[in-house]
Amino acid sequence: MPCPLPLRGPVRETRRGFTRGARRGFTREALRGLARDGAPRWRSTAAVFTSMTALAATSLVPGPALAEPHAAPCALERTAAHHSEGVDTWNSAYVRPTHPLDAVMVFLSFPDARPLTTPAELAADHFPATSDFFERASYGRFTLRAHPQPRWIRMPHPSTSYAIQRDWDAEDRAAYLRDALAAADKQVDFSRYDIVYFVADPDAPGVDSDATKVVNLDTPLHADGKDIRRVVTVFEKHPPDRLVLAHETGHVFDLPDLYHRPSDGKGDWDTYVGDWDLMGSQFGLAPDLFAWHKWKLGWLDPHQVACVQGPGSTRLTLEPLGQGPDTVGPGVGAAAGAGAGAGAGAGAGAGAAGAAAGAAAAAGAAARGAAAAGSAARGAAAAGALAAGSGISMAAASKGVRAGASDPGASGPGGGSDVPLPGVSGSGAHLPGVSGSDTSGPDASGPDTSGSGAFAAPSTGAGLPDGRNFGAGRGAKLAVVPTGPDSALAFEVRAPGGNDGATCAQGVLVYRVHSGAASGGGPIEVVDAHPHTESCWEESVYPPLADAPVGLGESFTVPGENVRVEVEGRTPSGEWTVRITTG
Question: pLDDT tens across 352-365, in order?
Fold first, then answer.
């Protein structure tokens, strides 16, 4: 386990020094040593703790479990750990992305190099991709508005004088930030922005791409009457690692690193969460943010989090994480036709999902290939996109400087207080889609679905108190089982869709949450439902966890916990029916 990162000071929260291919290659070689004859161990029915069965809801349960309509009992307390996963209060030292935020991109050149790229090209490396990621992840509840400055701003000293590197000397880093702010403040009104990106010329000799990070400041910088408490310093190559700026921006919103950084720099970085969250790896096949993070950031309504407590069995429906109000989950048609039998429905759903996943993976590969196009073509495309108004405002807040004006000195072309969170206290109304005391039998309340392999979920027309419809992207996304004062188990459905377009395997993903663990120290760890198998060997950042979800028709007992999850079926509207048994 790496040492916890300090609460303040430089926080390097994205891996550098390894390309995706090199890092994956090292991982494959290491993993092949764990398999007989060097052959990959593909998913099989012999996985420990997993039983491949056609589930029938006919057994009696020992007693009712409680599914709270609001998640207060399951809202782990925020601790002093850096980027704590506690969700009972919000750390007011960080901006919460529940409303549109404006981000300025300041492009810095140096006396010892002439830039080979334009600000427009570098802006297009990161936007609108970063904004699009958060738009999808938040279900349209958050918009990140980028404001790239139109021209280079020249730093007063050569790039080599700042000794830029991953583990940056504090004095050199402070000098860089002071010079950058002083140079930019002549032209940028920082009072208009919530987030600051300082983007260095990637071709300057002293720039190290491994140094991209969020810098948290003990003593804030001050400009235009505003305190700047953190800055994203960007030293990426052109083109950059994909979604790197989305990862770094996640830290601006108090999200932790979920990767494991080996103390000796060797070994695998992705053992904690694999492909399953952007904060673990921006290269992941399914990089959408965990539902837990969406809860923390304010993107889930109270009714979308089910708190499962007490011994007994709880049946509920969960929507796929990537399914928003304006999307339709893949395989819905196959699920709707499952009435002929649970087995037939499972096969059809799996086939449809596999086809969707294959198509998504191909599209993702094509997109990754397009991202490596030459800079000349990218520059033209960037200029066109920016001119077309693709969510980016070029130089919207220059201080009395015309958009086309040139800088005479430029070189080259062109912890906080506790804030109670709404929806984590009180009892509220009954949670749609959850049966809190499921005891199958003639006296059980509600429709008898024994043996049907499906759950009679509310229709998509069932109204919520605020007038919106339940389901169709507004249903439950997260189920939580508390396991200790600072720990819980989380359950969510991952399937192709949204930011998870290239998901390797679909099903119910199980993970442990520890609010007392610091960023980089394993605050979230995915539980592998198929611990002796791997999947997507060539594409996954960590194949052993690529098939971690509990699939349709499977049951899984969480190791070390008296908790079992059964995935019973699919509803016509695309939700997954799940039974969680505790005690």
Answer: 333 433 444 344 44
Task: Write the Ramachandran bin of 507: left for phi over 0, alpha for psi from -120 to 50, otherwise beta.
Answer: left
Six-digit token string for 252: 């601006």
- Which contacts of 470-473 are long-range, i.e. CB under 8 A and separated by 24 or more positions? 470/303, 470/432, 470/433, 471/319, 471/433, 471/573, 471/575, 472/325, 472/328, 472/573, 473/139, 473/319, 473/323, 473/324, 473/325, 473/326, 473/327
CA–CA gap between residue 162 and residue 179 (Å, rounded): 10
Listing DSSP states for 132-145 in one string gives HHHHHHTTTS--EE
Q: How far is CA 156 from CA 178, 407, 467, in A?
A: 11, 13, 57
Pick 421 or 552 by higher pLDDT. Answer: 552
**CA 417 vs CA 74, 89, 200, 548: distances in Å:** 21, 9, 33, 37
Task: Give the pair of three-digit tokens for residue 137.
Answer: 């992840």
3-class DSSP state of 91: strand
Residues 488 and 72 sit within 8 Å (Cβ to Cβ): no
Of the candidates 150, 155, 159, 154, the one whose C-alpha atom is nearest the C-alpha of residue 123 is: 150
Each residue of 558-576: pLDDT tens digit? 999 999 999 999 999 899 9
How far apart CA 574 and CA 335 sit, in angstroms, is 7
286-295 burial: b if 16+ Cβ within 10 Å, else e: bbbbbbbbbb
The answer to whether residue 263 scores a pLDDT higher than 60 is: yes
**CA 99 – CA 80 distance, rounded (Å):** 26
Cα dihedral 165→171→173→177 (10° resolution): -160
pLDDT score of 404 more than 60: no
Answer whether 85's CB lies under 8 Å from 326's CB.
Answer: no
d(CA 213, CA 257): 11
Q: Are strands 195-200 and 226-234 parallel, antiparallel or unpaired?
A: parallel
Which comes out higher in pLDDT, residue 262 or 291?
A: 291
Q: Which two tokens stand for residue 320?
A: 């796929």
Say which residues have a Cβ less than 8 Å from residue 61's Cβ, sequence separation at least 6.
312, 313, 438, 439, 440, 581
CA 255 to chain centre: 9
With a threshold of 0.70, does the pTM exceed it?
yes
- Per-residue pLDDT tens over the stretch 293-314: 999 999 999 999 999 998 999 9
pLDDT beyond 80 at 11: no
Angle of helix 119-126 versus helix 375-387 axis, rounded to 10? 80
DSSP-derived pairing of the beta strands 478-484 and 305-309: parallel
Q: Which helix (H) or strand (E) holds 582?
A: strand 576-582
Spell out where 41-188 has E strands.
50-52, 66-68, 89-91, 101-109, 144-148, 153-154
